[in-house]
Amino acid sequence: MKSNTLILHTAALFIMPLQLMFSVFLLLRGHDEPGGGFIGGLVAASAFVLYAFAFGSEPTRRILRVAPRDLLAAGLLFAIASTIPAFLAGQPMLTAHWWELPLPGGSYLKLSTPLIFDIGVYAAVLGTIMTFVINLMESEE
Asked: So what's the pLDDT on residue 32?
């Protein structure tokens, strides 16, 4: 279902990077305020779906760079991996853990298991939607 309109091609090329940046913003602010992995993954998927409508399934696979099913599997692995620190500490399954990694200049990078879980959800949602959309487009072609 490739479209040949100049307006859709131009809009897809300009809007896609903005949508992807906004999806990362939603992902990173998610555990403190509304947002998170699910809505961030939906916004990222909508960027790739727009690109797919404009250019077709094969160019979308190339720009995605990872097979959507692999992205789905990686997301599930990240979500499961976020439970390991609590398991090792003998705590309930989704107990949150935080780490501060020192950076040059005396600052710290704060990482947490909720962030790892949200990244997993983001990848799983993106992989699921793109698997559906690309398979539907390819069955139509």
From this structure: 67
Query: Which of the four pLDDT bands, split at 50, 70 and 90, describes residue 2?
Result: low
What b/e readout covers 53-67, taking b as 16+ CB neighbours within 10 angstroms?
bbbbbeebbeebeee
Residue 135: phi, psi to the nearest 5? Answer: -65, -40
What does the DSSP assignment read for 95-124?
---EEEEE-TTS-EEEEEHHHHHHHHHHHH
What global pTM score does this model have? 0.89
At 135, the pLDDT band (50, 70, 90 cuts) reads very high
Going 119 to 16 to 43 to 1, the CA torsion angle's sign is: negative
Residue indicated by tokens 């077709």: 56
Helix intervals (H) in 56-88: 57-64, 68-81, 84-88
The larger pLDDT score, comparing residue 2 to residue 78, is at 78
Q: Residue ranges per domain, the chain?
A: 6-140
The pair of structure tokens assigned to 43 is 């916004």
Q: Is the dihedral of CA 55, 58, 64, 68 positive or negative?
A: positive
Query: C-alpha angle with apex 78: 118 to 134, nearest 5 degrees?
Result: 85
